[in-house]
Task: inverse folding
C-alpha cells in the first residue's frame, strides 16, 4: 500500500536535486518542475490511489513500477506558483504535525490520569475522606478501614460473594 510522507527530497546533490520514494524510484524533474512541488505532488491522494492500483509483487514487497511513475501526468503551473504551493504545504503540514504531537502528548497524559484514577479508587475507594489502614500488601498500600483483600482467583460458592447483574459469574475488563 502506498503511504503518504514516505519519500524525501534530496537537495544539494552534485548533479542537482532529486526526489526518491521508499520504493527507491529516483526522479530528476525537468527544468519546468520545482523539486519540492514534485515531492508534494507525489504525496497527493490522486497519485497514491492511482499508484496503489498499479502495484506489483506480493506481501510486504509490493512496489509501484517505474513505468507508472514515469508516465503519471501532473499539473505544471509556472515555477513561481509551484514554489508558492510547496511553501504553503511545508508550512501548513508542519503546523498540522505540531498539532498532532500536542494531541499525542495530551492523550498520553489522559491515559496516565485514567490509570491513576483507577489505581486510587481501587485501592482507596471512592470516599476520599475514609480512614485508611495498612493492607499488609506492599503494592496495594493503605486501604479504607472496612475493605479487605484476597487473591483474584478464589473458590467462592455461587450463592456467596458479589455477582454482576444477571447473575453471571464473569470478569469483564474494560
Result:
Amino acid at each position: 500500500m502506498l503511504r503518504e510522507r514516505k519519500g524525501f527530497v534530496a537537495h544539494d546533490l552534485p548533479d542537482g536535486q532529486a526526489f526518491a520514494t521508499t520504493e527507491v524510484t529516483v526522479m530528476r524533474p525537468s527544468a519546468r518542475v520545482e523539486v519540492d512541488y514534485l515531492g508534494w505532488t507525489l504525496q497527493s491522494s490522486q497519485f497514491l490511489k492511482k499508484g496503489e492500483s498499479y502495484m506489483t509483487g506480493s506481501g510486504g514487497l509490493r512496489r509501484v513500477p517505474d513505468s507508472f511513475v514515469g508516465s503519471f501526468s501532473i499539473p505544471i503551473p509556472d515555477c513561481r506558483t509551484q514554489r508558492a504551493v510547496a511553501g504553503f504545504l511545508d508550512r501548513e503540514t508542519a503546523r498540522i504535525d505540531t498539532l498532532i504531537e500536542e494531541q499525542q502528548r495530551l492523550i498520553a497524559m489522559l491515559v496516565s490520569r485514567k490509570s491513576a484514577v483507577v489505581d486510587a479508587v481501587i485501592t482507596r475507594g471512592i470516599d476520599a475522606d475514609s480512614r485508611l489502614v495498612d493492607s499488609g500488601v506492599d503494592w496495594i498500600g493503605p486501604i479504607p478501614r472496612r475493605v479487605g483483600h484476597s487473591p483474584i482467583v478464589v473458590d467462592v460458592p455461587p450463592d456467596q460473594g458479589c455477582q454482576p447483574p444477571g447473575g453471571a459469574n464473569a470478569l469483564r475488563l474494560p
In short: Residues 1-76 form one domain.
